[in-house]
Fold:
Amino acid sequence: MKYHIEKNTVQETLILPLYGRKLCSERFPELFSDPDSARLIDSIDYDFSEKGKKMETAIGLFGALEVAQRQYDLAYEVSTYLKAHPNAAVVNLGCGLDTTFYRVDNGKCRGYNLDMPDVIKVRNELLPPREHERNIACDLNDTSWFDEIDGSDGAIFFAAGVFYYFNREQVRTLITAMSEHFPGGTAVFDTCNKRGVKMMLKTWLKEAGITDVGAFFAVRDPEREIGAWSDNITVSSKPYMCGYRPLGKSVRPLYRFLSKFGDNYVAMKIVKVEFAN
Structure:
């Protein structure tokens, strides 16, 4: 029996990145493979026809490519951390129906998937936790969830498309609190500048029914802006679309141009915040 998702609900926001991953796997298989996305789509009772048409336009398909690159970048950073800390906690902040842990699981680390109760309800049905993995319902801004994470052997936190929904003070409070509670840990997440937020508002955020641009977190210079939050952190960043692997001839020239535009004009970046021991 398929899991039903109503239109115009919080749960509906899970559909966009999931469908984007499926679409990218089909159109750019040499760059991205996510067989779980197709399986999940088939497990959901939802009319994808309207969103599918929009996402299969030229601009919509570039949005899918963004989703794929972001997941690749974050998985790369998590895997790199696990090479030095193989028994670490891998914490997916605002997990939705993301399956990054499946890609990075080395058999020794522990996976934690965090999101709001409505989302975890869906995840428990479609992606029940596997061995050494937990799905935790919580509000990320209520840091009592820290007590659920065993970071004794290190902790790597990642957030994909999550902090745009937070304001600057919420992100600052969360990151600085994490740096104090999980010494030696690392957090990685995607950001863009205010131009990028406004562009997202007109495209995929509009599809999710989000309209208050003033509530979104934007960064132009992560090293300077986020680095000033605490003496307990070290901040670095890389361009989001082209900083981790070249797209090359795998995609059409239009998408290579848009990728450079995104990295440069709207400062699409993957930010890494390392916590002092």
Summary: The two ends are 48 Å apart (CA to CA). The domain at 3-275 is CATH 3.40.50.150 (Rossmann fold). The first strand starts at residue 3 and ends at 4.
